Amino acid sequence: MSPRTKTKATSGRNDDIGEATRLGLWRQCLEVRHLEKRAYDLFLQNLIKGTSHLSLGQEAVAAGFGVAMRKDDWSFCTYRGHAHTLVRGASMTGVLGELMGRECGLLGGKGGSMHLTSVEHGAMGSYAIIGAHLPIAIGAAWSAQYRGTDQVAVCFFGDGTTNIGAFHEALNMATVWTLPVVFVCENNLYMEYTPIGEVTAVEHPAADRAGAYGLPGIIVDGNDPDAVFRAAREALAKARAGEGPSLIEAKTYRHSGHSRADPGKYRPDEEVKAWLARDPIPMYRKRLLDFGVKEAVLDAIDAETRAAVDAATEAAKASPEPALAVIERDVWADGGASWRN
Amino acid sequence: MAELTYREAVAAGIAQEMARDPNVVFLGEDVAAAGGVFKATVGLLEQFGPRRVRDTPISEQAILGAAMGAAMTGLRPIAEIMFSDFLAVCWDIVANEIAKTRYMTAGQVTLPLVIRTANGGGSRFGAQHSQSVENWAMAVPGLKVVAPSNPADVKGLLAAAIRDDDPVVFFEHKSLYAVKGEVPDGEHIERLGTAKVLRDGRDVTVLALAAMVPKALAAAERLAAEHRIEATVIDVRSLVPLDTETILREVVKTGRVATVEENPRLCGWGAEIASIVAEECFWDLDAPIVRITTPHVPLPSADNLEDATVPTVERIVATLRQAID
Q1: What are the start-end ranges of the H helices in B72-199?
Q2: Which of A237, B121, B137, B251 has the least CB density, counted as fewest CB within 10 Å?
Q3: Mean pLDDT across the stretch A213-236?
Q4: Do A111 and B92 touch (CB under 8 A)?
């Protein structure tokens, strides 16, 4: 195996990040946590139908990038994408409304949980076919490169994606074309119900493959917002400087099952317990307190985000179902769906 | 008027649009330095440079994914899939991503892109390099589908596809690349979604697409000369949008309709048209609708087998004679 660099982005003192940024990370983690918990509750109340894939436990990855990215950067994510869409600035009402199939939803009720998109916030879509959005993200990166802007495309995906062809096609072309794109693998140890290690030829499904595309293998603690933020900042700067793509593997763990239908019983109790002890939110709270942030400041942000989720829930509940007229709208750029004259 | 081959018209159409719009870019396997395996894009690299005309690895998902990502962020990419059969390896990007994203996002995303691909048989390449798959694309909401039969339409419809704000799958027929035809001088652009009446007759309306158009025309001449049967021949040109106005108008005039399709039998484009005709002008018909297609088999490669599988002029003549007698 070719030599590789593993950057362990450990958390240091409150120096290179700063308190204001850390409070931003704290806020985004909480927004995701409270919104995802609410999504789960609404499922139990049968107000959300279909399926849903929550980021409970994985908040730090979305937050680390959400804070590090520039407003005009583009993000592409998977069906587990509520978090990534929210951290770009999409409204909670839009997210919950879409999950509930209401008119106020980000997609007007036409996409659902697995397709959240908010182009005005640079959230360029949630893609529900494994691997598809890696090639799409390189296209956005190509467009930035071609037009000479210094925008970066960031693409989030799970560990399971590293075994599908599109991953390899996109990594190769991104390197050959020196594209400004950051690939972020959220390794939560399970591809749906199967331990990733049982179906993957290497230990670190993304990082160990990076060398095949001329990239360093970067592993970060995906439960540490600071570590993710630092890795994100570095990769974004590299892309912006015209030095090409990065592939980052963030080790993390989902607190719930793969999807709504999955209680996650296949995971050993000890493993679950160990990861719950590494819950990113209490860990980060402790660090911020250690760094001298006042408890009242942290609690106020917590209370604000809870209140925002409550307000969004009520707004979404109050929103009507979509008008049936939208069924035959927006197939084409002219707004219609006509296929004949 | 200049005389161009079908393949030269491809390059001419792309060049016309790249010259007028700097957001038009072109990518695919062997399209730049080699000028395309069918030599349909010769000269574009020299004229527009490697920034706009790019060779890619053999990575069809990356090619079409890149086209989609570029289109949703402001470019107008043209992507080549060398053989239409290869659409099968990137069908996710075509059918799940490109076709559906505008709808699913309630119009937030616009995808002005063109997928050019060499379609159809006649080259003895066997079943994985010869298929007519325009009906695959036709079956997916969100894709426009065009298949030109002559050099002028190649240039004009390709230009229209590039300027269109929706994704267009542009099927070039590989057995037509060497065919010559007059192409209007200067800027030439056609309208998507328009069929063209190529020949007027009183007895039957024949609908054809791509390489079946010259065969239908040859069959019509023979029917007239040898059997006093006069056929109207329509080049359908665009499956989505479909010019049902022209088609139904001509069908009503003759009272008989036949389709000539290179695709295998089941769910070919002619089946959809037959159902529209049956629903909307059944009482104007004097005879059952006739579909002349490739049988429902993969395409064989030997000269005589391939020639006998795809509809021939002889088969068109014989089938129409039988239908009209």
Answers
A1: 91, 101-104, 134-138, 151-163
A2: A237
A3: 97
A4: no
Domain interval for residue A205: 19-328
- Chain A residue at shortest CA distance from B167: A332
Is B129 one of the catalytic residues? yes
The count of structural domains within chain A is: 1
Q: Are A136 and B166 a contacting pair at CB < 8 A?
A: no
H helices present in chain A, as ranges: 19-44, 59-68, 82-87, 92-99, 133-147, 165-176, 207-210, 225-240, 269-276, 280-290, 295-318
Name chain A contacts of B28, Cβ cutoff 8 Å.
Answer: none
How would you classify the pairing of strands B168-173 and B76-83?
unpaired
Provide the pLDDT for residue A263: 86
Active-site hit among B129, B173, B188, B227? B129
Interface mutation target, options A98, A169, A326, chain B, most CBs of B under 10 Å: A169
- A7 inside domain: no
Q: Is residue A91 part of a domain?
A: yes
pLDDT along chain B (325 residues), means of 10: 96 98 98 97 98 98 98 98 98 98 98 98 96 98 98 98 98 98 97 98 98 98 98 98 98 98 98 98 97 98 97 98 91
With tokens 């930035």, the residue in question is A144
Contact B65 A139 (CB under 8 A): yes
> A327: which 2 tokens?
């069924």
Domains of chain B: 2-183 (3.40.50.970), 196-324 (3.40.50.920)
- Name residues 68-97 of chain B within 8 A of A (Cβ): 68-75, 77, 92-93, 96-97
Overall average pLDDT of the A254-281 stretch = 92
User: What is the per-residue pLDDT for A13?
Assistant: 59
- CATH number (domain holding residue A61): 3.40.50.970
Structure tokens at A63: 């937050």
Cβ of B106 and A108 within 8 Å?
A: yes
The whole-number average pLDDT for the span A89-102 is: 98
How much is the ipTM here?
0.96
